[in-house]
Design brief:
Layout (H helix, E strand, L loop, with lengths): L1 H12 L16 H13 L1 H14 L3 H6 L4 H21 L4 H11 L12 H17 L8 H47 L2 E7 L4 E5 L3 H4 L3 H4 L11 H11 L4 E8 L5 E11 L2 E8 L3 H14 L4 E5 L10 H7 L3 H4 L10 H5 L2 H12 L1 E9 L5 E12 L5 E10 L1 H23 L3 E6 L10 H7 L3 H4 L10 H5 L2 H12 L1 E9 L5 E12 L5 E10 L1 H71 L9 H30 L6 E4 H11 L1 H6 L3 E5 L5 E4 L1 H17 L8 E8 L3 E8 L29 H11 L3 E7 L3 E9 L7
Parallel strand pairs: 15-17
Antiparallel strand pairs: 1-2, 1-5, 3-4, 4-5, 6-9, 7-8, 8-9, 10-13, 11-12, 12-13, 14-16, 17-18, 18-20, 19-20
């Protein structure tokens, strides 16, 4: 079961296996370049900090690597790496900076240390970088389809960069292994040592070393020799069995030379994935042997190997012990080995117990937590072997310690993952999740499958999964087809009708995934089924509703277009009426004006009863003039309606205000008016010049016309600008407008002050000009204080047409 769960997890994660010799040619799309530039400009420091913090939170290999740097240098290294990656994308030079840095790294000149770096560290760091980059997508504004493509490109980029680093790391490992092989070859040809590989069946698969000369034998004499069927001394056979069971052993053993002489060898047998590695050195001549043994032990780096006195004090220390424990030889020699145990174990006298067991039984093996010099803990495998003289008196101990932290953590993670995954699968109620044998036989069953399909675990296990298909599907051998497709492509997904235990059907989404062992052999399938019946019904219902809505929208749209067309016709008729009326009234008014003038010339100074003819003539002239002004205003309104397409140009506001001041100079002088303007934010505006002048003319002249009798008129003009609008603000200190009249001042022919001349058309014209240009006008006023008009004109030139 654990093996299967691991495979299933890999399947769900869609683990990618990159073929050798992949090509680094990548054409980065616009969205990836844009995203890289966006991050580089706005979030490079945040990215760096987030990636570092995420790595520290994991408390794994990435954290241990980062602890080797100061905060400042770590930030600089991470930022530089991100900047170079983004620049590569922007410049279309795929992985240029990464490959250059990897060359420095391979030559041991890079900023990242090579010692202790593992495949797991590299994959963890790339996973962190990818996760942080994806998290920042929420700040990047782009369409959904572009985001999907961006996620894929980021994933591909991360995968490729990780593979580049892993390839470089593997090259380094191969070089180091080659160096080790050269060193080992040197040891084998100069030191009287014998190294033997034995497979799990006890057969010798490899033997080499100068030590064979001591025995008068050659390597071919031992090749294919089986230790359980040959002429070996019992201590060699028994310790070999222990080593093959997974326990490292060290002991003194006897070997018969070719000439019959019995030689004594110090033996170390270490478990290996394919069997054991057996190191032995001739200690028949004690002093020389001890020197040889010490040289060999000192060279071992993967195991801490050292000697203890009978009471537990350290008397030797190899390179592996220094690397594992953190103490140098000068620091640790002479100290008690209990320094590697925590206080609780010391209180329980565990160190003393272990020595006593090794003394009584010859050896003692245990696993547990041990402590390094810096106080950090690691999970260790410990073997303590008693060393006795020829009289069987205890003269000390040898101690071999191996760091099992990574394997322990891996085992614990796998165990927890299996438990969580098993609990997750078993407790899921909305999905049917179960396993199939290669032939389609059901091998597991979860709660969701029971609820969805209706079968209990006892009822369904051992049956073929085709039981869930309709008779038509069975006859066409569709279930078998699904397994073939899943085997061929790794997965198969489908939607269609499936059958429950009670014979009812439901609409299902089905995902079948092929599962393989480490050798690539098919071991079965996982199958996930989801009930989509409600979703299917809802989709069909929505399609029906959408069709009905589309018909209603079309009907309403047709009605609306018809209404708009009618309103346009009415509006055109109204405009034509206004234009025609104003045009046709001009001639009669001119005739009336001429006739009245002729009449009064004929009358001369003749009195008419009690009225003064000159006063009557003056009143008639005023009425005629008002009539002419009204006709002029109507003409202007009609012109705005008919001719709303004018050339837009960049108009200087101060120049236009000065032009208005010249036009109404007599009003300004007569009323002692002051016009003040501040136009720093928008000194120029894109608009139709004559229309903008008309707006300013009406606002400024109204500010003077409706002045307060208590003070000289002051008109202040300002301009503000934002992303969409230029806003002209015209403020006066005149009579003001009552609050109940504010909504009416833009109506045609509306006037609220009769003591000054006017037609009530000016503000109506201003409003029409502004709204035709896509803008708006607002007014704020307080009676007796003054009024403020805000004219907002859109910046986009096309909106003004």
């Amino acid at each position: 079961m654990p093996c299967f769960v691991v495979l299933l997890i890999r399947c769900f994660l869609k683990e990618k296996i990159t073929p050798e010799g992949f090509v680094l040619k990548m054409d980065y799309p616009i969205c990836l370049k844009s995203y890289s530039a966006f991050l580089l400009k706005h979030y490079i420091d945040d990215l760096t900090r987030d990636a570092i913090e995420l790595a520290k939170e994991r408390e794994g290999p990435a954290f241990n690597l980062f602890m080797q740097f100061s905060g400042e240098s770590l930030h600089a290294i991470a930022r530089k790496a991100l900047e170079e990656a983004f620049q590569d994308i922007l410049n279309d030079t795929p992985f240029k900076s990464l490959k250059e840095n990897l060359e420095l790294w391979k030559s041991n000149k890079g900023s990242i240390p090579r010692d202790g770096l593992s495949r797991r560290t590299i994959t963890t760091l790339h996973h962190i970088q990818k996760r942080v980059l994806l998290d920042y997508l929420e700040y990047f504004d782009s369409p959904g389809t572009e985001l999907i493509g961006l996620v894929k490109e980021l994933s591909d980029y991360s995968q490729t960069s990780m593979e580049l680093v892993l390839n470089a790391w593997e090259e380094i490992q191969e070089e180091e292994q080659s160096e080790k092989s050269d060193l080992l070859q040197g040891v084998l040809t100069t030191v009287p040592l014998v190294i033997t590989k034995i497979n799990k069946e006890g057969t010798v698969t490899y033997v080499a070393g100068k030590g064979l000369e001591v025995l008068g034998r050659k390597a071919k004499d031992w090749k294919n020799f089986n230790i359980f069927g040959g002429d070996l001394f019992p201590e060699n056979v028994e310790n070999s069995k222990q080593a093959l069971s997974g326990k490292a052993v060290s002991y003194l053993g006897r070997v018969r030379a070719e000439n019959g002489e019995i030689r004594v060898f110090q033996n170390y047998i270490l478990p290996d994935k394919n069997g054991v590695l057996w190191f032995c050195i001739d200690v028949s001549e004690k002093k020389e042997a001890e020197e040889r043994l010490r040289s060999f032990i000192d060279a071992v780096k993967d195991y801490a190997i050292f000697k203890l006195t009978p009471d537990g004090y350290i008397v030797s220390w190899n390179a592996g012990a220094e690397a594992l424990k953190g103490y140098s030889k000068s620091e640790i020699i002479g100290k008690h080995f209990s320094v590697f145990y925590d206080e609780e174990l010391k209180k329980q006298q565990v160190p003393e117990f272990e020595l006593n067991q090794a003394k009584v039984h010859g050896r003692y093996e245990a696993e547990g937590v041990r402590i390094r010099k810096d106080g950090s803990r690691f999970w260790a495998n410990v073997i303590i072997t008693g060393v006795f003289d020829e009289n069987k008196n205890l003269i000390g101990f040898t101690k071999i310690t191996r760091d099992l932290s990574e394997s322990k953590l891996a085992e614990e993670k796998i165990r927890k993952s299996e438990e969580r995954f098993r609990a997750l699968v078993e407790d899921v109620k909305d999905y049917a999740i179960f396993l199939l044998e290669p032939d389609g036989t059901i091998a597991s069953w979860n709660e969701g499958a029971k609820r969805l399909k209706g079968y209990s675990e006892e009822e369904i296990l051992g049956k073929n999964f085709s039981i869930f298909y309709t008779e038509e599907k069975k006859q066409s051998k569709y279930p078998e087809y699904e397994l073939v497709q899943a085997t061929k492509y790794g997965r198969f997904e489908d939607e269609g009708l499936r059958v429950r235990k009670d014979g009812s059907t439901f609409y299902a989404n089905v995902l079948i995934t092929a599962l393989h062992d480490s050798s690539g052999n098919l071991i079965g399938f996982s199958k996930i089924t989801r009930d989509l019946t409600e979703k299917k019904l809802l989709e069909e219902s929505l399609q029906s509703v959408n069709a009905e809505l589309e018909n209603k929208v079309k009907e309403r749209t047709d009605e609306l277009l018809k209404t708009i067309k009618e309103l346009k016709r009415i509006n055109n008729d109204l405009d034509n009426f206004i234009y025609t009326a104003s045009h046709d009234l001009k001639a009669p008014i001119s005739n009336i004006e001429g006739l009245i003038s002729s009449l009064f010339e004929e009358l001369g100074d003749v009195p008419l009863k009690s009225y003064d003819l000159q006063e009557i003539k003056s009143m008639i002239d005023i009425s005629v003039e008002k009539f002419k002004v009204t006709i002029k205003d109507l003409t202007e309104i009609a012109k705005i309606q008919k001719d709303n397409v004018e050339s837009v140009e960049l108009v200087g506001l101060s120049e236009l205000i000065d032009d208005v001041k010249i036009t109404i100079a007599d009003q300004i002088l007569k009323n002692n008016a002051e016009i003040i303007y501040h136009l720093d934010e928008c000194s120029e505006i894109k608009f139709v010049r004559k229309n903008l002048k008309s707006i300013l003319y009406n606002l400024i002249s109204n500010g003077i016309k409706y002045r307060s009798p208590d003070r000289n008129p002051i008109i202040q003009i300002r301009c503000s600008s934002d992303e969409h609008y230029n806003t002209i603000i015209c403020q006066d200190n005149g009579l003001g407008i009552k609050s109940e009249n504010l909504d009416k001042i833009f109506n045609m022919f509306k006037r609220f002050h009769d003591h000054v001349e006017g037609s009530g058309v000016g503000l109506y014209i201003v409003k029409r000009i502004i709204e035709n240009a896509g803008g708006k006008i607002d007014v704020e006023s307080k009676e007796g204080v003054g009024s403020t008009f805000k004219v907002s004109l859109p910046k986009s030139g096309h909106e003004l047409l």
